[in-house]
Write a structure and sequence with these properties.
It contains eight helices and five strands. By secondary structure, the protein is of the alpha/beta class. Catalyzes the ATP-dependent conversion of 7-carboxy-7-deazaguanine (CDG) to 7-cyano-7-deazaguanine (preQ(0)).
Length: about 230
């Protein structure tokens, strides 16, 4: 599918970003997915992202970018193996309002690099699956963060200076997980190709915060999650 308008999709291989991919396609965009290998425990998600890109017929445009230095920095349960991923019943707040699964600067870096890809490809929008309801403790998932980054993009890019700034699209920003699943099912999002587990095993653990939110979303949407779980 080739159209006159293009969108870069930040694709993690998880439920939210894959739903964004489907929504961008539904909106008539030609898709340019970009995935980041930032030293996350969940290496499996990178392969899932490749499968999603293949499903949508855009494997030739799918970029996988290495940001391994985030693992060197540590500071997150997703990149630092000395920090345990919170299991069921644990908050993971560690004395603050920011969960230990927050990766410092991650979305800021993702959006900066996606902006470069968008400008080179002529994309007018960047889709990112941030959600302020389920991840309200993450500072880089808030609407005000997105708007400020969009302002900087307009100042820092040639297209922005010339009057055609790149937009950041966040269709999931205020949806519950159930709403995300319902909308994804409506447009045929391939959830069987996705993974959300923080632990990165062959079967999702069913216990980490991400698994629990995903399972809850499918249950409240009246649907069955198609991926295998060790615990549910």
């Amino acid at each position: 599918m080739t159209t006159s308008k293009k969108a870069v999709v930040i694709l993690s291989g998880g439920l939210d970003s894959t739903t964004c991919m489907g929504l961008a396609r539904e909106a008539g965009y030609d898709l340019y997915p970009i995935t980041f290998d930032y030293g996350q425990r969940q290496k499996r998600e990178i392969e899932n992202a490749r499968k999603v890109a293949e499903f949508y017929g855009v494997s030739d445009r799918h970029k996988v970018i290495s940001l391994g230095f985030l693992k060197e920095f540590g500071g997150s349960a997703l990149t630092d193996e000395s920090i345990e991923v919170p299991a069921a019943g644990e908050t993971g707040l560690e004395g603050s309002e920011i969960p230990v699964t927050y990766v410092p600067g991650r979305n800021l870096l993702f959006l900066s690099i996606a902006t470069s890809y968008a400008e080179v490809t002529g994309a007018e929008a960047i889709y990112i699956g941030v959600n302020a309801l389920d991840y309200s403790g993450y500072p880089d998932c808030r609407p005000e963060f997105i708007r400020k980054v969009e302002e900087v993009m307009a100042l820092a890019t040639r297209v922005g200076v010339e009057g055609g700034p790149i937009r950041i699209e966040t269709p999931l920003i205020d949806w519950t997980k159930a709403e995300i699943v319902r909308q994804g099912n409506r447009i045929g999002v391939p959830y069987h190709l996705t993974t959300s587990c923080y632990n990165g095993q062959e079967e999702a653990c069913g216990e980490c915060d991400s698994c629990r939110l995903r399972l809850k979303g499918f249950e409240e949407a009246g649907s069955t999650d198609p991926i295998p779980y060790r615990e549910a």
